[in-house]
Amino acid sequence: MATVITPKKACTVNPLKMSQPIGSALAFMGIKNCMPLFHGSQGCTSFGLVLFVRHFKEAIPLQTTAMSEVATVLGGLENVEQAVVTIANRQKPSIIGISSTGVTETKGDDVDAYIKLIREKHPELDHITLVYVSTPDFKDAFQDGWAKTVTKLVEQLVEPVPAEAERLPNRVNLLPGAHVTPGDIDEIRDVLEAFGLEVLALPDLSGSLDGHIPDDFTPTTLGGISLEEIADLGRSVHTIALGEQMRDAARALEAKTHVPFTLFDRLTGLEPNDALIRLCAQLSGRPVPLKIRRQRGQLVDAMLDAHFHFGGKKIAIGAEPDLLWSLSQWATELGAEIKAAVTTTASPLLERLPTDEVLIGDLEDLEARAAGCDLLMTHSHGRQAAARLNIPFYRIGIPMFDRLGAAHQTIVGYRGTRNLTFEIANMFIANAHEPHPDTWALPKEEGHAGTAAVAAH
């Protein structure tokens, strides 16, 4: 059992953590024709906008209520009203997702009351859905903002369904965590569809931030799950939640619609994917397809080939709790040791991590603990630490701004796990110390010149 440590540093150095509003905005981007809106200053929104543009290399829809110092003190009703009306008239979204920031939370703006007043004053906006989520960035972290937003979407937008209602037998819901990439969602969907199952993902970044080019320009999100599909989630036969962070959302959906759920704390590795395949076979009533069986065999062979290179390797990981859990469990199953584990926020999983201690800290803490490791795994801000420590560096998580293809990085399923295993094993092979004649030399002893000296003669 790991010891969870929260440092008492005066300030964060080289932050690992991304804020709650960023996670909330990303969740809203998985909804069709949505405009995320930060209730805060322009700087808060500019930071998030630049971060997402650099990571996804796409046009990002994100607006702001542009709170000034005076507006913050007096209250933000006028700013929220003006922002909502302007967005409605110009961008014409189906939904506006409002996320609070530190400045407005400190003031204590009652945004739910603001929305009620705006509804009364502007009945012409009744066709636009407004969802507000409290996400102060002075507490919690990226995955917390995502999880709160998905839970609020379920509570506010899903239609209640009685327990005895008829279900669609071949349709399942997918609630992916903030650590799940568009590529991961596509991979999970491929697996489920191989069993003849239809999938509704909330949020669905694979439809909005997968890098596709639309036929026409739109100022809102380019795709994702529609409001009609969200409302209809209660008619599915089962819900699959991915990541401990999604437990509250899955429970909220079950309470409202009586749809049972299964939570997978990870889908990176052999055992959890076997459990997913068993569930798919049970839900569909079909045997496991040949291509899925073949993918499993390929993963087992990859693990067999790679474990020689993972055995005894020391790895340092800095990531959100659910991503940290996935990577740690997968690496230790292949024989590696988690020497350093740093995360951003509290989670029930932290005490169960396969390491001695877990630190809720920053990249300075990770660098201090990663000395002597064989690999550093974190987002792109860890590149300087890896260079100073002179150890291999694997980029994973958000933001990944100095490489292409972040949205398509896939580490779930048999195929995703296989590819990740090969990728990391190849890094270990590339950085292995090649033997040379000096390596073979016998130790010099009195009366013995040693093989290197003999070879010199």
UniProtKB/TrEMBL annotation:
Entry-linked InterPro entries: ChlB/BchB/BchZ, Nase/OxRdtase_comp1, Nase_comp1_CS, Nase_Mo-Fe_CF
PROSITE patterns according to UniProt: NITROGENASE_1_1 (PS00699)
Gene3D superfamilies: 6.10.250.1090, Nitrogenase molybdenum iron protein domain
Domain of life: Bacteria
Coiled-coil stretches noted in the UniProt entry, renumbered to this chain: none
Pathway where it operates: Cofactor biosynthesis; Fe-Mo cofactor biosynthesis
Keyword entries, A-Z: Nitrogen fixation
Domain Nitrogenase/oxidoreductase component, first and last residues per copy: 19-428
Pfam families named in the record: Oxidored_nitro
Free-text function comment from the UniProt entry: This protein may play a role in the biosynthesis of the prosthetic group of nitrogenase (FeMo cofactor).
Family membership: Belongs to the NifD/NifK/NifE/NifN family.
Protein name: Nitrogenase iron-molybdenum cofactor biosynthesis protein NifN
Source organism per UniProt: Candidatus Methylocalor cossyra
Lineage of the organism: Bacteria, Pseudomonadati, Pseudomonadota, Gammaproteobacteria, Methylococcales
Encoding gene (name): nifN
